[in-house]
Amino acid sequence: MASSDALLPISAREEDPLLSAGSRSDPNAETHRRRRPVKGLLAVSFGLLFIAFYVVLIATHDGSSRSNDVKIESDETATTTSRARLAGVSEKSNGQLWKLSGERNTVSFAWNNSVLSWQRTAFHFQPEQNWMNDPNGPLFYKGWYHFFYQYNPNAAVWGDIVWGHAVSKDLIHWVHLPIAMVADQWYDANGVWTGSATFLDDGSLVMLYTGSTDKSVQVQNLAYPEDLNDPLLLKWVKYSGNPVLVPPPGILPKDFRDPTTAWKTSDGKWRITIGSKINKTGISLVYDTIDFKTYEKHDTLLHKVPNTGMWECVDFYPVSKTAVNGLDTSVNGPNVKHIVKASMDDTRFDHYAVGTYFDSNGTWIPDDPTIDVGMSASLRYDYGKFYASKTFYDQNKGRRILWSWIGESDSEAADVQKGWSSLQGIPRTVVLDTKTGKNLVQWPVEEIKSLRLSSKQFDMEVGPGSVVPVDVDSAAQLDIEAEFEINKESLDKILGDASVLAEAEEFSCQKSGGASVRGALGPFGFSVLADKSLSEQTPVYFYVAKGKDSKLKTFFCTDTSRSTFANDVVKPIYGSSVPVLKGEKLTMRILVDHSIVEGFAQAGRTCISSRVYPTKAIYGAAKLFVFNNAIDATITASFKVWQMNSAFIHPYSEEAVRALSST
Amino acid sequence: MKKMVVVMMIMMVMVMVSEASMIEQTCKETPDFNLCVSLLDSDPRGSSADTSGLALILVDKIKGLATKTLKEINSLYKKRPELKQALDECSRRYKTILKADVPEAIEAISKGVPKFGEDGVIDAGVEAAVCEGEFKGKSPLTSLTKSMQKVSNVTRAIVRMLL
């Protein structure tokens, strides 16, 4: 008899293994009463059963070893609202328990509509209401920048996903358009998920996107504009032969999503890559196609990295080694490096690596395998709340632009109450850092400067342990560009002083206590969205640390731990080290827009997006401070602060479109 | 011959005893093995469920517990009118669990994008903790809110296995 049949009833009786084992012995007693020749047969079948049990035993033990990767802290009772630090659960994968932050007080903050409505941003892309997540198919066509996005038309949490759509002339002033694609076919009935656009040689374009079928299988589908003469690309047609790709052998039906923009190979075919995983190894599959309808799968992968988990939203594109313009996705050559980026499902971090692409076989290797895509030390576009990012080549201005989903860090009850959830980051240009050659630099698109209103310039010396209010009137919509210098005397003294211990090797923004912990050469920077008494504040700062070799290492951090009295909000400290080359001053740019703060250090070498939800430092009570919390060092700060106008993102109407067209 | 069969039987028994069930193996990787096993064993779907199925069973338990807690909150309005403000906030929080967190988790887990399920499950624990905090140490709902936090932690651990 088939051994697997025998297994089922027995394993179902596992509740009391001893009891079920005893009862199992009874039918075996019958063998004693059978005639001799049958005994041999029975012995053989028992032997086979026995082997089968061992096989199952080994198989189930192999299965369970997958979950050993997850480290779970033991359950400590959460009733004590003591000084336990809030563990930023959504941002980490270490499974620490979320605890109410009881540092400040034990009184819960009940959100009211006034406080909640302040949180809506003035110049970041967001739909009028409800939930948004991944950016989809960004492109420039017939004078308009198009943006599509994962959208839930029914609630302020993820679900019922369709493609939202909006257009802009300048990536800043948007008009919402009607929904581009809904879940109306069997092959996307359970979700019209993330995808990318590709321009064909004749100037037309196609969209490849993931559909979750009526059986919840992840497949890739082809869609294209119904009318290429409509610059607004309002209507989309799904290819009648969908799906064009289904999960290949060896890939599970729920590990196959987010196709990239295609690029041309040297033999004139189109090539795409799709992220997936095999056990815990993150991988990227490669397919070639001529017509986007039939595909050849490569036997080899674009790349893979063990222990990184599922790769979502893979992105693959060339960057110039020498020039600062962007490159079309199909560009290749000796002057070009290629970026592989993936969103790590396990950690919710976006990672990328710089490397070399081999067109002959569709593979890629990183320049530095120790910081390969998804490894904990590998580079990230942004060290804060930033996921599912996607670039596109803007042929209008010759740049590569990066979009990213910036989710909420508050409770879903607050999202439901305020009626919306999630933002997109301000679109950024992306280029290779030609000075280091090892990382990308990102910068908010130039067009954001059109929002700048009045400005004020400040030049000041800030002594150790001081906080200085910056007089800028309203402080919820700001663009700040700053340059800092540590006083040379202080620097020399501290470098030479042996009693000042090296700390660069141990320091990390996340673990070193935040902006209130004073060091020899930092922290210093700005406190944004702070109230007059600094009872709520969000410091964005540099921390310069002395290394064991007496060299300096600079860190750029955002500390949201004291950003709000609310205790149902995640309040991490974000950041990373930032390369500072010889002769460079320390520079920082900060965009403040109500509940989002975006920081850029050293012209975009290290970026941090964070979400904050002050309860007091809002409306007229929100202030700006510059601070220097170093123990001994004096710093000079030279900075300009602009008031930022709203982008007046419009709901759909023909007038709104016309108004934008004329700009 | 007899001896051989007996020996084989004994060895088979040993193998079976050492092979833990799917539920036990899964629950070992959660912060509360006993709670996990008792929730899953007591459910008729538990014995034949895969990891995804086990996660959905636990989301169902979260739903049941939230419904039960809301009933208790409603009954407290009459018994403890002085707690109205806190009860209002708790009601809002628990309704979020039922209307937002649970449907999100069910959809995400069944469709194979478990990270949104993880968010929903974590949030259920958050909402319970916030509700508890409303009473400033004198909560009439402590055992229910504590249960929700514990179930949320266990469920989260299982959802993470799907990532």
Q: Ranges of chain B with pLDDT <50 over ≥5 residues?
A: none
The CATH topology of the largest domain in chain A is what? Tachylectin-2, Chain A
Q: Give the averaged pLDDT of chain B, no decimals.
A: 93
Mean pLDDT of chain A: 88
Annotate the secondary structure layout.
The complex is a heterodimer of chains A (663) and B (163).
Chain A: H1 3-12, H2 17-29, H3 36-65, H4 113-118, E1 130-141, E2 144-152, E3 162-168, E4 174-181, E5 192-199, E6 205-212, E7 218-225, E8 236-238, E9 263-264, E10 270-278, E11 281-289, E12 295-297, E13 303-305, E14 311-320, E15 336-344, E16 349-358, E17 363-366, E18 387-394, E19 399-406, H5 412-418, E20 420-421, E21 423-424, E22 428-432, E23 440-444, E24 452-462, E25 466-470, E26 477-486, H6 488-496, E27 521-530, E28 538-546, E29 552-559, E30 573-577, E31 586-593, E32 596-601, E33 606-611, E34 623-628, E35 635-644, H7 654-661
Chain B: H1 2-18, H2 22-28, H3 33-41, H4 51-79, H5 84-111, H6 114-133, H7 142-160
Helix pairs in contact in B: 2-3, 4-5, 4-7, 5-6, 6-7
Domain Pectinesterase inhibitor (chain B): 18-158
Signal peptide (chain B): 1-20
Family (chain B): Belongs to the PMEI family.
Report on this structure.
The complex is a heterodimer of chains A (663) and B (163). Chain A is mostly beta strands and 663 residues long. Chain A has two domains: 129-444, Tachylectin-2, Chain A, CATH 2.115.10.20; 448-644, Jelly Rolls. Chain A is 13% helix and 37% strand. Chain A is built from seven helices and 35 strands. In chain A, the strands form seven sheets. Chain A has a six-stranded antiparallel beta sheet. In chain A, strands 25-34-27-28-29-30 form a six-stranded antiparallel beta sheet. In chain A, a hairpin with a 4-residue loop joins strand 18 (387-394) and strand 19. Chain A is globular and about 85 Å long. Chain B has 163 residues and is an all-alpha fold. Chain B has a single domain (2-160), classed as Up-down Bundle (Butyryl-CoA Dehydrogenase, subunit A, domain 3), CATH 1.20.140.40. Helices cover 79% and strands 0% of the residues of chain B. Chain B has helices spanning 2-18, 22-28, 33-41, 51-79, 84-111, 114-133, 142-160. The interface between A and B is large, with 80 and 72 residues. Chain A: Residues 25-116 form the Beta-fructofuranosidase N-terminal domain. Chain A: Pathway: Glycan biosynthesis; sucrose metabolism. Chain A: Its main location: other. Chain A: Residues 447-643 form the Glycosyl hydrolase family 32 C-terminal domain. Chain A: Residues 124-444 form the Glycosyl hydrolase family 32 N-terminal domain. Chain B: Residues 1-20 form the signal peptide.
